[in-house]
Amino acid sequence: MAALSSFSSLNCPTTSSSSSSSPCLSSRRLSFSSSALKKFLPKKISLQSPRYWNVINSQDGTVPVTASPPENVTSLRKLKDELLSITSSEEVREETSVDIVDEHNSTVSIVVVGASGDLAKKKIFPALFALYYEDCLPKHFTVFGYARSKMTDAELRDMVSRTLTCRIDKRENCSEKMEQFLKRCFYHSGQYDSEKNFAELDMKLRDHEKGRVSNRLFYLSIPPYIFIEVVRCASNSASSANGWTRVIVEKPFGRDSESSASLTRDLKQYLVEDQIFRIDHYLGKELVENLSVLRFSNLIFGPLWSRQYIRNVQFIFSEDFGTEGRGGYFDSYGIIRDIMQNHLLQILALFAMETPVSLDAEDVRNEKVKVLRSMKPLQLENVVIGQYKSHTKGSVTYPAYTDDNTVPKGSLTPTFAAAALFINNARWDGVPFLMKAGKALHSKIAEIRVQFKHVPGSLYNSSFGTDLDRTTNELVIRLQPDEGIYLKINNKVPGLAMRLDQSNLNLHYAARYAKEIPDAYERLLLDAIEGERRLFIRSDELDAAWALFTPVLKELEEKKVMPELYPYGSRGPVGAHYLAARHNVQWGDISAEHPLE
Ligand SMILES: NC(=O)C1=CN([C@@H]2O[C@H](COP(=O)(O)OP(=O)(O)OC[C@H]3O[C@@H](n4cnc5c(N)ncnc54)[C@H](OP(=O)(O)O)[C@@H]3O)[C@@H](O)[C@H]2O)C=CC1
Ligand SMILES: O=C1O[C@H](COP(=O)(O)O)[C@@H](O)[C@H](O)[C@H]1O
Fold this sequence. Notes:
Blueprint: H1 2-7, H2 23-26, H3 34-40, E1 44-49, E2 52-57, E3 61-65, H4 76-86, H5 90-95, E4 98-100, E5 106-113, H6 118-133, E6 141-147, H7 153-161, H8 174-183, E7 185-189, H9 195-209, E8 213-220, H10 227-237, E9 245-249, H11 257-267, E10 276-279, H12 286-296, E11 310-318, H13 327-331, H14 334-352, H15 361-373, E12 383-389, E13 391-393, E14 396-398, E15 416-421, E16 433-438, E17 445-452, H16 461-464, E18 474-480, E19 484-492, E20 500-508, H17 509-512, H18 520-530, E21 536-537, H19 539-558, E22 564-567, H20 575-582
Parallel strand pairs: 1-4, 5-6, 5-8, 6-7, 8-9, 9-10, 11-16, 12-22
Antiparallel strand pairs: 1-2, 2-3, 10-21, 11-17, 12-15, 13-14, 15-16, 17-18, 18-19, 19-20
Helix pairs in contact: 6-18, 9-10, 11-19, 14-15, 14-19, 15-19
């Protein structure tokens, strides 16, 4: 057990400044026994990332084993010796080849294309800083902003600095860290279709890479119709000569099956699938990441997770603001493409998938795609759409969707949709999976609700009155805000009488965990840097997601179906309730409750 003990309380001397509690390590560390290590050692071990060891099995794909180096090891060379010393078998030692990409000799350049835009400012630069602050970025890294706007490095730094914050649970050396981070940020102004401008960027990147192995990550934070031009230019003029080149592609990935397939085809003229990281930021959210942990590491949920006990599942997304400022983009997509086809459907796939063979990206994505391909075609009768209208409350008048100057008058684009979906497989046959997504509603919330069946022959039915639906167990996973998981159970009200009520078993994150929850973009950027693909969308998943929604989207558009109008700030169109009722479901978010408080 020597290996287990030497690898189980480890530090990370390989990040830019070492910290004994670096979250990038602790969240991913896996202890393994010396016998397990011996099993892997004969195979080729590649220490691709200083903190992420990929043990590559040439026959069966990649078996990821994460670990961090022992405290007393200060260089990767020593780490290699340490690794080899763990096994006593000479034969094993001779067969073992350890490729070390020495972090002293490699660098990562992160190019944010569209650096002047909303997403870059709001999410990407702050997430990169948070990773830096947590010592999660490699020792040598550079951040480059690229866009058409004219800006100096100093102006970019000034723009970026306005959005940076430190973890509220830490805050040590905050301004010092910000300054260090900003010194690593640079800007290059160029056109998106100019290979010459990308070649200039390449020169600047080379200057910063200083002859080290160069790894490059391009984040396409730009409108989708310029994706391909950028990928062409980056690929032809600015891809890495001796390391990896990866591209994070933001949604929307097309607007239907055909355009999505054509986007993938075009991307693949310049990139192979492994270089394409299609981001769905909901997969980076803490409670979405926790979904598999909840299901597969707790014995109690496994047996309940099927049509035998689950009556329906609800995926609810609601925002209490309209499309303010993004109406131009939104009007050609609508809420089904903006939220349902990607964020909610991805969560559904994770919720409903079978246990994957391992947590390896391909194993997880294989299971998700099976769910998506098993889904019953979505019928128009199982979809309700809505659009918000103006509403006056007190002295404030909230605008209608079509009051937005960037929205064409008379637009039929839905800002709300509800849908009932079904999975045609043995586990889920007949269980309604309801989705509801809307803008300008009464609250901002995203949650998964699992409603269980009635207790058969319950001794206590008479204590509840006539509405047995009020007594069913419900598991609620609140993705945001105020993350938490709670289970509604029936309980005896203390006292001499036999009176029952429904109460919550609560896991309220703010009360249970002192740590601030990282933003989804932090997790996803880190994964992309490390080549971890589990939380990114593979092309066959994308095809299956579009295959489900494209026919109904076409029908809505061809038939010019009128969305049901709902007042800004309301609970959405009543049609959503009729839809649920037709499937014998009541939306769980309707009763005004604050169970986590
Ligand atoms: N903003 C958000 O919250 C979210 C955004 N996304 C996706 O991320 C990507 C970026 O979003 P966001 O930052 O909001 O986008 P922006 O509209 O802010 O565009 C980003 C940058 O792209 C350039 N740009 C904008 N319009 C054009 C155009 N017509 N032709 C050429 N260049 C243009 C601009 O830079 P310059 O003029 O300096 O070249 C702009 O600063 C999009 O694909 C979006 O769908 C996904 C989820 C959420
Ligand atoms: O992808 C999108 O997501 C945001 C909501 O993201 P959240 O992390 O703030 O919940 C949504 O506002 C936007 O319309 C959509 O494009």
